[in-house]
Amino acid sequence: MQKPPKLRPGDKIAAISLSWGGPGAFPLRYAAGKKQLEDEFGLQVVETRHALRDEDWLKRNPQARADDQMEAFADPSIRAVISTIGGDDSIRILPYLDLDVLRAHPKVFMGYSDTTITHLALYRAGLVSFYGPAIMSGFAENGGLHAYLVEAVRRTLFSAIPPGEIRPNREGWTVDHLDWGELANQSRRRTLNPAEGWKFLQGNGVRRGRLLGGCIEVFDWLRGTSWWLAPEAWQDAILFLETSEDAPPPDEVERILRVYASLGILKKLSGLLFGRPGGQVPVERFDEYEQAILQVVCEEEGLDQLPVVTRMDFGHTDPMGVLPYGVLAEIDCLARRFSILEAGVVE
Fold first, then answer.
1. Which residues, in sequence order, are bridge partners of residue 7?
2. Are residues 336 and 193 in the same domain?
3. Are residues 97 and 225 in the same domain?
């Protein structure tokens, strides 16, 4: 896997809208995220050619969205590309991507949710990319950036030293939604739930593997297409999955995992990581998701030694960390520790 150069203060970053036209729908929210990203990290954020177009136009023009991706990667003045927001149809840009061009210009790419599609395209091109915050969610956090996000971005994108142990967020987490159209809400901190830490559901010993994953619903959209991962990609991988703000129920997660079991994927893995359930799922229902996971992994497949860690800090709850695709990570079940052993960027 090719790694992009690390980021430095002063670098020019391209904001891109690969799916939903969020900046056009909520310009105040986009502006807040852009400013907080620039101010905290000393970056210069510019927009790709169509990033600020209205949502209807972007929906009708998937090739324009893909063109933005190609142009941003080919532009030597751009050091990173960060998604403005997710959506539900970035799968439509795939026919217009040229993997050879992307491969020839490795640079930091980050986003989450529907951006899973682009991450897997870059993985197919042999490039490390980063599952992490978007400009309008994460970097536009109400009341200022969370310290957990800031530390994760600095350790992962601004340093070529392996991040090492990734600790659980201790400042609390949230899925509360405040109307993005109300300017007053931007300075109003969302209510935080207590930080309960991660749950190591099962597993023994120390297991290592390369990180691969994304939003479980989006990830599964590629199954059966030519963009689905080759069988060897799953071997010894640590698969990270999380659910979207649509809050798919536990039985849907169970069904998807059952399909992966039937494809022989689960037996090849070194570990499974799950973010907290996205959407308005009460904490008391988190156990239902964990029971669904164990039903497939342990009861049906007999993989009772496979490490499974849940309620982690990535995906559709805030603050979120950053996970680099294709780099070596480790799950230590005895010490209850998760570490990223390899840097995702180079000097």
1. none
2. yes
3. no
- Whether residue 267 is contained in a domain is answered as yes
**Cα–Cα distances in angstroms (integers) from residue 109 to residues 5, 115, 314, in the given order:** 11, 10, 16
Look at residue 39 in the predicted model and tell me its pLDDT.
98
Count Cα atoms within 13 angstroms, Cβ side, for 336: 9
What angle in degrees, to the nearest 10, is found between the helix axes of 250-262 and 286-294? 20
How far is the C-alpha of 232 from the C-alpha of 250, rounded, in Å? Answer: 28
The strand pairing partners of 138, in sequence order, are 134
Determine how β-strand 206-215 pairs with β-strand 328-332. Answer: antiparallel
pTM passes above 0.90: yes
Which residues, 6 or more positions from 264, have their beta carbon under 8 angstroms from its beta carbon?
231, 234
- CA 300, CA 292: separation in Å to the nearest integer? 11
Query: Is residue 173 assigned to a domain?
Result: no
Which residues pair with residue 2 across a beta bridge? 127
> What CATH number should be reported for the domain holding residue 143?
3.40.50.10740
Residue 301 lies in a domain: yes
Tally of CB atoms within 10 A around 347:
8
Backbone angles phi, psi at 84, to 5 degrees: -75, -35
**Structural domain count, the chain:** 2
Domain that holds residue 259: 183-340
Same domain for 231 and 158: no
Contact 219, 119 (CB under 8 A): no
CATH number, residue 212 = 3.50.30.60
Single-letter amino acid code for the residue at 87: G
26 and 135 together in one domain: yes
Residues 146 and 202 in one domain: no
pLDDT along the chain (347 residues), means of 10: 98 98 97 98 98 97 98 98 97 98 98 98 98 98 98 98 98 95 95 96 97 96 94 97 97 97 98 96 96 98 98 97 98 97 98
